[in-house]
Protein: Probable beta-glucosidase G
Organism: Bionectria ochroleuca
Amino acid sequence: MGFTIISFTLCLATWCNQAIASSFGNDDWTNAAKKAREFTSQLTIEEKIAFTYGNATAGAGCIGVIPPIPRLNFTGVCMSDGPNAVNRAEFVTVFPSGITAAATWDRNLIYQRAHALGEEARGKGTKVLLGPAVGPMGRHGLGGRNWEGFGPDPFLAGEATAATVRGIQDNGVQTSSKHYILNEQETQRSNSTTEDGSPVDAISSNADDRTIHELYLWPFTNAVKAGTTSIMCSYNRVNQTYACENPYLLKEILRDELGFAGYVVSDWFATHSGAKAINAGLEVEMPGYIPPSDYPGASFFFKDGLTKGLEDGSVTEERLNEMVQHIMTPYFLLKQDSPDFPSPDPSSSLILLANDVGLLSMIDSGVLPQPGQFPRGRDVRGNHATVVREVAAAGTVLLKNTNQTLPLRSPKVIGVFGNDAFEPPNGLVVQDFDRISFGSNIGNAFIGGGSGTGRATSIVTPLEAIRTKAKEIGSEVQYIATNELLAAGNFKSIYPLPDLCIVFQKTFASEGSDRTSWELDNNSTAAIKNVAKLCENTVIVTHSGGVVTLPWADEPKIGAILVAHYPGEQSGNSIVDILWGDVNPSGRLPYTIPIKGDDSGPPIVNLTEPLNDQGAWQADFSEGQLIDYRHYDAMNITPRYEFGFGLSYTSFELGNGGEVEAKSLGNNSLSAKPNPDVKVEVGGHPELWEDVAVVTSHVSNTGKVAGHTVPQLYVSFPSSTPRGAPLRVLRGFERVYLAAGQTVEVSFRLKRRDVSYWDSDTKAWVIPEGDFTFRVGFSSRDFRGQVNLKLR
Ligand SMILES: *[C@@H]1O[C@H](CO)[C@@H](O)[C@H](O)[C@H]1NC(C)=O
Ligand SMILES: *[C@@H]1O[C@H](CO)[C@@H](O)[C@H](O)[C@H]1NC(C)=O
Ligand SMILES: *[C@@H]1O[C@H](CO)[C@@H](O)[C@H](O)[C@H]1NC(C)=O
Ligand SMILES: *[C@@H]1O[C@H](CO)[C@@H](O)[C@H](O)[C@H]1NC(C)=O
Ligand SMILES: *[C@@H]1O[C@H](CO)[C@@H](O)[C@H](O)[C@H]1NC(C)=O
Ligand SMILES: *[C@@H]1O[C@H](CO)[C@@H](O)[C@H](O)[C@H]1NC(C)=O
Ligand SMILES: *[C@@H]1O[C@H](CO)[C@@H](O)[C@H](O)[C@H]1NC(C)=O
Ligand SMILES: *[C@@H]1O[C@H](CO)[C@@H](O)[C@H](O)[C@H]1NC(C)=O
Ligand SMILES: *[C@@H]1O[C@H](CO)[C@@H](O)[C@H](O)[C@H]1NC(C)=O
């Protein structure tokens, strides 16, 4: 049951551009906007107002609903979570998480994952899939939602975001790129109330304009350029103003600078005002009305805000028209008015409820059908298990492989150890926001919790896949599941000594809370050390949503370490593909692993004093752009494994003696700024997306087997650049497939934005004067060649 590596031709310039470019041009947007205007002109004021907030009465199992208007053949808008699966639905696929996709460093695989996900959304009648998660990026390694997105480097995240937006929307399904913006921690992400009833605001993320542009806004810009039809504003405040009522973010940046032509929707319960938010640029309040109206937290602002606001003049009818047009433009852009668009799957409304309150409460409240009369869901999975397996294997990072421990050959007795190797005991659904199933001791962490999770129909656990493989090769498998026994060193059930031990350990992560420990969960360190004491030949596999420290990494008997992220429902198969070498590992870390947690940068803000000050929660992003590898570089801290790092079963070098060539496409005399007379289009100033330089080098497979590698381009800006620029930034990567002995040319095309800094004073991207240094290598610290070039 080998898994074929699809031989992949080099990402040539034309193809790479496709991954970035929208499937829609400005004319498509303009035509769709015209249809939206005509549509809006046929609505009554009440109908228009009803467009601006959710109304779950029209239900059908969607987490957000804009009700239909049959008179106009408008079929309504169904919004569903989320970025890794169509959540709260059955017979769907649970895909590898965002961070797993990012770890492939492969635009094509990221696109395929998104395309399959979008196909399932369409099959379920979802018009808007709430994703991709573009932030949090991972300012903090312990961020509870880091696994949903594409990691802390804006260039990698930007490429992944663009490929994901295109992949989903090529099915005619809208994306809602979220969470806009600076939603970097879950702790106090929303407002709260103290015991004595006084209000406490959500955390305020305070960042300067340049940091916003060059780091946190960067991937959102790619999302807009790729045609994302909606942006979801986040729970937190930015500079003391809630993100969902912040005119600088919603108007100046999104509309004026990025040319965004879709609509802004609030995160669920993230709206804090009517007229204020409406005039600041928010178009849709979610979830809006939830029957019965005493549903906890079901305050909603837009209905009254608009009804009263039109009367007292605090909102204009022009603004209301604009809101509806922005909401309807994507509907026409993606041809969602077509009768071919499936209606919402009827089973989903029961599943939504079952997920939330459980079947027993549904019996008590009389809403449960008789056995045999449950509507069953449409099976939309197709052959997506293949995509899951390939992406998960490609997103698995080999960090250590001494004495050729991997790939495995035919160990006679295999020991499988650890709580992460096994079937979760309480079913395959991460119960919303709690840790009942997956945070409990036993259970494979194939995905995280919260809105980004999914209801798996079945999963393949590591133990199951290893057993299948063992049968094929005539090996025996023995196991211990509980970390308690391993941590206590109790191996009484094991005889003889295994030839090979594989330890599976995990971290649980979920929306709603941040992680509190850098190590893998449940006494993992003691468990791992004891297995390594027992076994001459130990392989460690981690399933986690991001940064975990590996304090046992240097133990000599630990021969190999694989970081498998959250792999989705083909968890076991994808890791077996790597362990036995059917797939040569090529994943690269999309973040940095420190030696100890304290090395990693600013801690999550967590106030422990009783708070009477409403505005007390403040996160000052005073490190600017220096997060993840940029922080380690600037502070001269040696990490354990750096951003961009990952091993293979073969070896690679830069060909031609490490020669790197760089060529300006602008005759070394580019203008400092884009031409101010050219109009902004969807995605911002068009000249920012023009290629201005090309860097070329050669990559060789110097080992004995074929495999993929990921040459990476890091750019150092000239010394004339204003203070605050990181020492080096990623600005190019290509995942290439090479037969043993083969050499290929790789070229990285740099766009104007890639070689510009954001000048806050003139609000413009500027190419600095002087020498840029272009370094090419295999990680953020492993450079094999470099060259200097002036661009102006
Ligand atoms: C929600 O939708 C239902 C059915 O379409 C409608 O009767 C009700 O008035 C709506 N509620 C609000 C608050 O708009
Ligand atoms: C609604 O669809 C029907 C059937 O396709 C069509 O006859 C009718 O003209 C449409 N109405 C509007 C307002 O577009
Ligand atoms: C958060 O703020 C909103 C709007 O100001 C308010 O309606 C809501 O009750 C607050 N939530 C909590 C938990 O305090
Ligand atoms: C936040 O405040 C800083 C400092 O005044 C400013 O540079 C930045 O532009 C502000 N950002 C937003 C989103 O308002
Ligand atoms: C395992 O770790 C998770 C996450 O820290 C925790 O929620 C859970 O309670 C732990 N389980 C046991 C059995 O200690
Ligand atoms: C972790 O260790 C503590 C203290 O030894 C013990 O009480 C606890 O049960 C252990 N938890 C797990 C999941 O092994
Ligand atoms: C924040 O503090 C609370 C109370 O001390 C604690 O329970 C929680 O784990 C902390 N959260 C983080 C992310 O450190
Ligand atoms: C790997 O090789 C090193 C050096 O040759 C040796 O010290 C170490 O014990 C070996 N480890 C294993 C797991 O065989
Ligand atoms: C390139 O620059 C040189 C020197 O400034 C100039 O002589 C030449 O005409 C330019 N070539 C092009 C194609 O613009």
Residues 435, 439-441, 508, 521-522 surround 2-acetamido-2-deoxy-beta-D-glucopyranose (ligand 5) (CB under 6 Å). The longest helix spans residues 107-123.
